[in-house]
Design goal:
3-stranded antiparallel sheet, 2 helices
Length: about 70
């Protein structure tokens, strides 16, 4: 649908925005600043520790909730 992720307004006052991926799926909603941060996170290159070059166990925390569902 889009060539790259886009930030689109959801209300006429410009207070709430949605971040949509290339397929038009909504990734997140919030203020313009929140959507810009999410856009930065999803478009920046992965660091070596995130991309899998460093393999170390991730500690498990049973009572922790994710801010963004994966």
């Amino acid at each position: 649908m889009y060539a790259e992720p886009m930030i689109l307004p959801l209300d006429i006052n410009g207070r709430i925005y949605a971040l949509q991926d290339e397929k038009g799926n909504t990734i997140g909603t919030g203020t313009r600043e929140v959507c810009e941060v999410l856009l930065y996170i999803i478009t920046k290159p992965a660091s070596p520790s995130v991309s899998g070059r460093i393999n170390r166990p991730i500690p498990q925390r049973p009572n922790l909730r994710a801010a963004i569902a994966i």
